[in-house]
Amino acid sequence: MYKNLAATLVAACFFSSVFSQTPPAQAPLKAAWVYVAPLTDAGWVRQHDEGRKAVEAALGSQVKTSYVENVPEGADAERVIRDLATQGNHIIFTPSFGYMEPTLRVARDFPNVRFESITGYKTAPNVSTANARYYEGRYLAGIAAGRMTTTNVAGYVAGFPIPEVVQGINAFTLGMRSVNPRAQVKVVWLNAWFDPPRERDAAMVLMNQDADVLAFHTGSNAVMIAAQERGKMAVAYHSDMRKVAPDAQIAAVTHQWGNYYTQRVQAARDGSWASGNFWGGVREGMIRVDGFGAKVPQAVVAQVNAAQKAIGAGKLQPFAAPAKQDIVDNEGRILIPKGTKLTDAQILSMNVLVSGVQGKIAK
């Protein structure tokens, strides 16, 4: 009798424990980022880190994030990415074009880790790619620059001669010339993403060549600071830079990575992550032109905002030729026949400069 009673009590305790116990919480997913330059108050790296912070804010205890900053492209990048995979990160974001090949090499050795090659174009079963249509923001900034210039000369400090940068130069020029047909754009190539002293020197050279409006595709705020010091104007890139250039900033082309990063981390967590190639712009909320300076007339602000709305609605495309006019390159060859537009494939492989740009693509 007592033996049966003891067995009953043990069984009761067992089933009570099973049905009353809270299921164990899922461990946080580990997500890591690799940054090509130092993390500063503004710029390329800052915007990606704002995206990382957005992931933390959205997912809370479900995720644990980390980052490594100032990692050069090449062998150092591969070493850092491999270390992060070894440390048990479930998803690793590598936002720099030169990280593409190192990411692919590491991914082959860690098939259970997801990798996101930001600005890359090569995929694998566990490597996805993503980029933003930066050129849409460039076109809008060109409209503002074309309205604000008095010398009809803009300067452009460019990083590397890859299609993404060429797209930006061309879109900026087309935007300027859509409101100011006499506008010219002078380019200085750096073959570097982040080199503040050289970025500043390039800005000075361009301003000495009559450029009263500057744009740039590099990673620091050096061009903005130079414009502020010289009493010129500039378009901020990546981030709003009015903090260092309150008088110089015309507007800012800002990159918004928070939603994309959050969606991808959540997909890695719930098992729905899949390799792909995403390219988002104004419509998807990844590119935004805002942060207009106090000196910019409201009519210019309204014109840019109207164009931004049209791009978001698909009614305005920077690389579309008017019905009665070809768009030609700066050597006179037809680039976009009248009444047509470039395909995504053509935009992604862009390797010529449009009419209005002085100079050639650096080798």
Summarize the structure.
This protein has 363 residues and is of the alpha/beta class.
Total DSSP helices: 11
- In terms of quaternary structure, the protein is single chain
Order of helices and strands: HEHEHEHEEHEHEHEHEEHEEHEEHE
CATH topology of the largest domain: Rossmann fold
The outline comes out as globular
Average pLDDT reading:
93
C-alpha termini separation: 93 Å
According to DSSP, the number of beta strands is: 15
| Sheet with the most strands, sense and barrel status | 7 strands, mixed
For the record, what CATH class of the largest domain applies?
Answer: Alpha Beta
- The percentage of residues in β strands lies in 15-25%
Rg of Cα set: 25 Å
The portion of residues assigned to helices is 25-40%
CATH architecture descriptor text of the largest domain: 3-Layer(aba) Sandwich
| Total domains | 2
Give the strand line-up of the largest sheet: 12-10-9-8-6-7-15
Structural class, by secondary structure, is alpha/beta
Poorly predicted segments? 1-24
Q: What is the name of the CATH superfamily of the largest domain? A: Response regulator
Features:
363 residues, alpha/beta, Rossmann fold, seven-stranded mixed β-sheet, six-stranded parallel β-sheet, 15 strands
